[in-house]
Structures are given as C-alpha cells and as structure tokens.
Amino acid sequence: KMLRAKLYQMQVEEQQAKIAGNRAAQIGSGGRSEKIRTYNWKDSRVTDHRLGQNADLNKVLGGGFDDLVQQCILKDQQDKLEAMMAEQATQ
User: Fold this and answer.
1) Which residues, other chains included, contact 71 with Cβ-Cβ below 8 Å and sequence gap of 6+?
2) Are 57 and 40 in contact (CB under 8 A)?
3) Distance between terminal CA atoms of the chain?
4) Angstrom distance (rounded) from CA 7 to CA 13
5) CA angle (72 as vertex; 67, 76 as ends), nearest 5
6) Would you state the pLDDT for residue 41?
7) How much is the pLDDT for 10?
8) Residue 44 has pLDDT above 70, yes or no
9) How would you label 64-77 residue by residue, b for 16+ Cβ within 10 Å and e otherwise?
C-alpha cells in the first residue's frame, strides 16, 4: 500500500509540474520585451508580435480583427501539435 501511494503521489506531482510549466509558458514573465501587439498610430498599423504580422489599425479598431484571432488560434494548434509530436518521438 505504501509503495502504491508513493508512486501515485509521484505521478500527481509530475502532472502538476507539467501543468505549471505549460501555464508559465503561456503567461510568460510579463516583461516589456514580451509584447503581444504594438499599435503604431503614425503608420496606421498593428503588429502582432506572436505572429510576426501587420494589420490595418483602422480595421482592427473597427472590430475587424477576426483574421488575427483565427491566425492566433491556428498558431496555438500548430504549437500544440508540434509538442505532441515531439513528446511521442521521445517515447
């Protein structure tokens, strides 16, 4: 019984560490260098630094940011797929 409980505890701790690592990767350090977007009024441009793409500022401010959102979702899905593939490759 003690061995089973110890193994279970180790498994739970490993899973919690993995979840905490994923959460930290999503949140980041919150530093100024981790910009998500820059709004450049002079050039009427929005730069999404996660995607490395620019969009029209007026369009985004008018509510037309569906393209950026869809691209962010796609990038997140690709990152998750790559992580799953890398995890399977190590097993």
Assistant:
1) 48, 51, 53
2) yes
3) 29
4) 10
5) 150
6) 93
7) 92
8) yes
9) ebeebeeeeeeeee
